[in-house]
Design goal:
The N and C termini lie far apart (54 Å). This protein has 559 residues and is mostly beta strands. The strands form four sheets. Strands 12-15-19-22-25-28-31-34-39-35-32-29-26-23-20-16 form a 16-stranded parallel beta barrel. Strands 5, 8, 9, 11, 14, 18, 21, 24, 27, 30, 33, 38 and 40 form a 13-stranded mixed sheet that branches. Strands 13-17 form a two-stranded parallel ribbon.
Length: 559
């Protein structure tokens, strides 16, 4: 038999991998294989690597694997490019695959149904204009498989769009095998999926981001093509085998008119969904930046700025909110993180701020720094199981917001006009009390325990008795029943108070927080916010940063 090798823009070679032969394919707009889906179809169930060798725009929907059957070897889609030179995958009609079998309005431009796939070094777009008959738009990606890695990907809305991806759609949606309560035991539930080194921007490149007097940027959903939220899941873990862990690391999330990451587990039975977020940057969201309903959460070394800035809100918002779902009462550990400008006068509830244990289980907040937040930490509507433990934290300028983070009476303040939020007429009756430590409902159940924290500069500080219906008087050190041990009123002394700086909120020499931490849960960990040693000297410092650390080794992913 005669074998003929054909060398064109398509380069194909076989490489033995494990027990299967994998097929590698190059894709180029000028080559023999001109579309990504054509390359996927050619590889089939053998698996392999698809390398996009140009910086073209691929206007197509992409589908890896079978929606109904668990078959086929992993496929990697990548390119040799970085930054703006990365190829763009942008769905032409953006109707793509179904996100859920029972929800025809949940669509995506890219869908992954095969375990172990990798998407890297590309730009991924969603289309808020799509599926206009329901107003939901289209996700950029739908993941319906385990062990999927998304690495060095920029995710954004398609340019030229007007509209938004409403709930339940998002930039990336993590789903499970089976629909609704019929989730399949041991099925593809996105377990061990990883999102790393990625940038998420919620406004199309031709849209307006920052607020201005001429418009309201990310606060108005339909003026620009926008994402409602960046990462979302709706799970039903109905048995012990459904233990789902998803990790997000070294990513940035900017500009969302609504939410950031929103995970939900609506099952009332066994199993668990856990989200691990570390070394991430969140900025400028209309509502919360991480919201967990019935899902467990671990956060370490993250920055949260300008949360809850929109003219709308739910009853439990904050930069991070934890709440039950269908009787599932989740816990959370939050450590070595920075919260700046969280909460606004337009958000209607005075307990919006840094961390809100709405009605979850045990939430531990340790080694965090809060500045210019409407409230610091809140136990909002607790259950008997609800506990909020706060330790080794620094709270500065609570009850304020700095311009231009939020809107007041529909107009943005100027950079020279920071303002106290107490005078917003938008606060709802009975929700006025803002505090550093806020057991707002004060129902007699749940615990808010504060140990070894520094508090400085409370806006319009008021310690008088509050009665429901009274006008707002000011911000308090504590509202409701709060157990405080070792709370020091002192200026923390920072080298800088700029969350965009190289070493944000680093302690300065002479700070009362240096070498003053105590053992607490969660443990301090090995690294501080800058990813430098958490302990320099004999004892860890208070707050998110350690004084006297070596030069930062953090490498933010930057859009």
């Amino acid at each position: 038999m005669k074998y003929q090798a054909i060398f064109v823009a398509l380069i194909v070679f076989f490489a033995f991998s494990g027990s299967a032969w994998s097929l590698d394919v190059e894709v180029s707009k000028s080559g023999t294989v001109k579309t990504i889906q054509q390359a996927i179809d050619q590889i089939g169930v053998q698996g392999g690597t698809i390398t996009i060798t140009d910086s073209g725009v691929y206007e197509e929907t992409v589908w890896i694997g079978d929606e109904m059957e668990r078959s086929g070897q992993p496929i990697t889609i990548t390119s040799p490019f970085s930054g703006d030179a990365r190829p763009v995958i942008s769905p032409l009609d953006a109707l793509g695959p179904f996100v859920e079998a029972q929800r025809a309005d949940r669509k995506a431009g890219v869908a992954i149904f095969t375990d172990g796939c990798v998407l890297s070094n590309v730009i991924l777009e969603g289309n808020p204009d799509a599926n206009g008959q329901t107003g939901n738009g289209s996700c950029a990606m739908f993941v319906h498989a385990d062990n999927v890695i998304i690495d060095n990907v920029l995710v954004r809305p398609r340019a030229g769009t007007v509209g938004e991806t409403n709930y339940p759609n998002s930039a990336i949606f993590f789903a499970q095998e089976g629909a609704g309560e019929s989730a399949r035991p041991g099925g593809r539930n996105c377990d061990n999926c990883i999102v790393r080194n990625c940038d998420f921007i919620g406004v199309a490149t031709d849209g307006q981001t920052e607020p201005s007097n001429e418009g309201t940027g990310y606060l108005i959903s339909k003026e620009n093509g926008q994402f409602a939220t960046f990462l979302r899941t709706d799970h039903f873990t109905n048995n012990d085998s459904q233990m789902v862990d998803i990790t997000v690391e070294n990513c940035t999330f900017r500009y969302s008119y609504d939410a950031g990451i929103f995970f939900s587990n609506r099952a009332g039975g066994a199993g668990r969904v856990t989200l691990n977020v570390r070394d991430c940057f969140f900025d400028a969201h209309g509502k919360f930046q991480i919201g967990m309903r019935g899902c467990w959460l671990n956060v370490d070394r993250c920055i949260f700025s300008r949360a809850c800035q929109g003219p709308h809100g739910d009853g439990e918002n904050a930069a991070i909110r934890i709440q039950e779902q269908n009787g599932r009462i989740p816990d959370a550990d939050i450590s070595n993180s920075l919260f700046v400008n969280c909460g606004s006068g337009y958000s209607q509830r005075a307990y919006y701020g840094g961390v809100n244990n709405h009605n979850g289980g045990t939430v531990n907040v340790n080694h965090c720094t809060f500045d210019l937040c409407l409230s610091g930490v809140t136990l909002n509507s607790p259950r008997a199981e609800s506990v909020l433990n706060v330790s080794n934290c620094i709270f500065n300028r609570i009850g304020y917001n700095a311009a231009p983070a939020s809107y007041f009476d529909g107009l943005p303040p100027t950079d020279e006009d920071p303002f106290v939020l107490w005078y917003s007429p938008n606060f709802q009756t009975g929700t006025q009390i803002s505090a550093v430590f806020n057991n707002f409902r004060d129902t007699g159940i749940g615990e808010l325990n504060v140990t070894n924290c520094i508090v400085y500069d409370i806006a319009e500080e008021d310690s008088g008795e509050y009665l429901p219906g009274d006008p707002p008087l000011g911000t308090r050190l504590a509202a409701g029943e709060v157990t405080m041990t070792g709370v020091t009123r002192a200026e923390p002394i920072f080298v800088n108070m700029d969350y965009t700086a190289e070493h944000p909120y680093e302690l300065a020499a002479g700070s009362p927080g240096i070498d003053q931490a105590v053992a607490a849960l969660p443990a301090a960990g090995d690294l501080d916010l800058d990813r430098t040693p958490r302990v320099v000297g004999s004892v860890a410092d208070m707050g998110a940063q350690e004084f006297g650390s070596i030069t930062s080794i953090r490498e933010w992913s930057v859009y």
